[in-house]
C-alpha cells in the first residue's frame, strides 16, 4: 500500500443548542460545545475526530478552548508529515511529547482511525479487531431538575421505544430532596425501566453511606461516582457496603487510573469514555483491565455529538460484554446536526454503520453555520 502522510489538522469549535437545560451536580448545560478535528492526508482522505467535554472546565482539566489551542499549537506540528496509516507510530510520538490531554488525544486517535478505515474500506470497528454486534442499548439521562417533568419524559421515551434505562443526575440538591426525587421516579416507572443515578462527586462519604443505602433499598440499579474522585479510601469502603453497585466515572482520567482503581477494589463497574482515556483504542485498554479484574463495563459518554458518539460505539461493539449497556445518546440531546446522515436510534438501540471509517460525513453548510467565529 502506498503510504500517505498527514498534511494538516484543523480544529473547529462548534456550539449547538440542547433540547432543554441539562442539570448536572457541577453545571447546568444550556448548550453543548464540540471540538471537531479534520485531519487531511496526502492521498486526499480526511479523517474526522471529536473532543467534547461538559461545562467548560466544570467537568475535567480540558475545555473546548484549551483543546483547540493545544491541538493547534502542540499536536499538529508533531503529526504533520507523519505516516497517516501508522496509528501506533503517531500515537506513540504524541505520548513521548505530550502529557495528559486525553480529550485532544482522543480526537486525534479517532481521526486517524476514521482516515485509515476510509483508506482500507473498513469500518473503524474492524480496524479495532472486529465487531461482535451491530447495535448497543442506550440509556437516557433525566436531568430537567423537575420530578414530574422527568417522569413524563421517561414515559415518552418508553412509548417511543427509544430508552428503557434511565440515569438521574443528582448531587446538587440537599440529600433528602434528591433521594425523594429518585424514589418517586423509580416508583412511577416500576419494573418497566432500570433506574440509575449519577451523583457526579456531589456527596461526601457520610452522605453517600445513607444515600447508597436508601437508593439500593428502593430498587436503584447502579450508583455512579457518589463521592470525590480524590477520596479513594471512601470509594473502597462504599464499594464494599453499598447495596447497589458503585460505578467509577470521574475517578478514571486515564488508563493508569483504571488500573489503580481495579487494584484497590474501588468500583465494581467502570464507565468507559474515549475522551478520558485518549481515544477508541485507549479506552479498550481500560476495558481489558476491567475484564481481567472482574469489573463490569458500561459505555459512557461526555455528551459528544455524532462523531464522538460513533467513535465510542465502534470501540464498544468490539467488547464481549457491556453488562450495564451504554449512554451514547449525545446526538439526541442536541437540536442540530453537523453530519449529513445522523446516527440511527431504534428499538432502544443505537445502530452502528458498516460503511468505511466512522460511517459519517460532515455537512459543510451546517458546520459553517454553527462553528464559533
Ligand atoms: C457523566 O457524568 O456521566 C453522561 C450522561 C450525562 O447526562 O452526563 C454525562 C456525564
Ligand atoms: Mg458520570
TrEMBL record:
Q: Which cofactors are named for this entry?
A: Mn(2+)
Q: Where is the Mandelate racemase/muconate lactonizing enzyme C-terminal domain?
A: 148-245
So, what pathway does this thing act in?
Aromatic compound metabolism
The record's SMART domains line, in alphabetical order, gives: MR_MLE
Going by the UniProt record, its keywords in alphabetical order are: Aromatic hydrocarbons catabolism, Isomerase, Manganese, Metal-binding
Can you tell me where the transmembrane regions are?
Answer: none
UniProt superkingdom: Bacteria
Concerning CDD domains, the annotation shows: MLE (cd03318)
Family membership: Belongs to the mandelate racemase/muconate lactonizing enzyme family.
Question: What protein am I looking at?
Answer: Muconate cycloisomerase family protein
Amino acid at each position: 500500500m502506498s503510504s500517505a502522510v498527514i498534511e494538516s489538522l484543523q480544529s473547529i469549535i462548534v456550539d449547538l443548542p440542547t433540547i432543554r437545560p441539562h442539570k448536572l451536580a457541577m453545571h447546568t448545560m444550556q448548550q453543548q460545545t464540540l471540538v471537531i478535528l479534520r485531519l487531511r492526508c496526502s492521498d486526499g482522505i480526511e479523517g474526522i475526530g471529536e473532543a467534547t467535554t461538559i461545562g467548560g472546565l466544570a467537568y475535567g482539566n480540558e475545555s473546548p478552548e484549551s483543546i483547540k489551542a493545544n491541538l493547534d499549537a502542540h499536536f499538529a506540528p508533531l503529526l504533520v508529515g507523519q505516516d497517516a496509516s501508522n496509528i501506533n507510530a503517531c500515537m506513540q510520538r504524541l505520548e513521548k511529547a505530550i502529557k495528559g490531554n486525553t480529550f485532544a488525544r482522543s480526537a486525534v486517535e479517532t481521526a486517524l482511525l476514521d482516515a485509515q478505515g476510509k483508506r482500507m474500506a473498513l469500518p473503524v470497528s474492524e480496524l479495532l479487531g472486529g465487531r461482535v454486534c451491530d447495535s448497543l442499548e442506550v440509556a437516557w439521562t433525566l436531568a430537567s431538575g423537575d420530578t414530574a417533568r422527568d417522569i413524563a419524559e421517561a414515559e415518552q421515551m418508553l412509548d417511543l421505544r427509544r430508552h428503557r434505562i434511565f440515569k438521574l443526575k443528582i448531587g446538587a440538591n440537599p440529600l433528602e430532596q434528591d433521594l425523594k426525587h429518585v424514589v418517586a421516579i423509580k416508583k412511577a416507572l416500576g419494573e418497566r425501566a432500570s433506574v440509575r443515578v449519577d451523583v457526579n462527586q456531589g456527596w461526601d462519604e457520610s452522605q453517600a453511606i445513607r444515600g447508597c443505602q436508601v437508593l439500593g433499598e428502593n430498587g436503584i440499579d447502579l450508583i455512579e461516582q457518589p463521592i470525590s474522585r480524590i477520596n479513594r479510601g471512601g470509594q473502597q469502603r462504599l464499594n464494599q457496603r453499598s447495596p447497589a453497585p458503585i460505578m467509577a466515572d470521574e475517578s478514571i482520567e486515564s488508563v493508569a487510573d483504571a488500573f489503580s482503581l481495579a487494584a484497590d477494589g474501588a468500583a465494581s463497574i467502570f464507565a468507559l469514555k474515549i475522551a478520558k482515556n485518549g481515544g477508541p483504542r485507549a479506552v479498550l485498554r481500560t476495558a481489558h483491565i476491567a475484564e481481567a479484574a472482574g469489573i463490569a463495563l458500561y459505555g459512557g459518554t461526555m455528551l459528544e455529538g455524532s462523531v464522538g458518539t460513533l467513535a465510542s460505539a465502534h470501540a464498544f461493539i468490539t467488547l464481549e460484554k457491556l453488562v450495564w449497556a451504554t449512554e451514547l445518546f449525545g446526538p439526541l440531546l442536541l437540536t442540530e446536526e453537523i453530519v449529513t446522515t445522523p446516527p440511527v436510534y431504534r428499538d432502544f438501540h443505537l445502530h452502528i454503520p458498516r460503511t468505511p471509517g466512522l460511517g459519517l460525513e460532515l455537512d459543510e453548510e451546517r458546520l459553517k453555520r454553527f462553528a464559533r467565529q
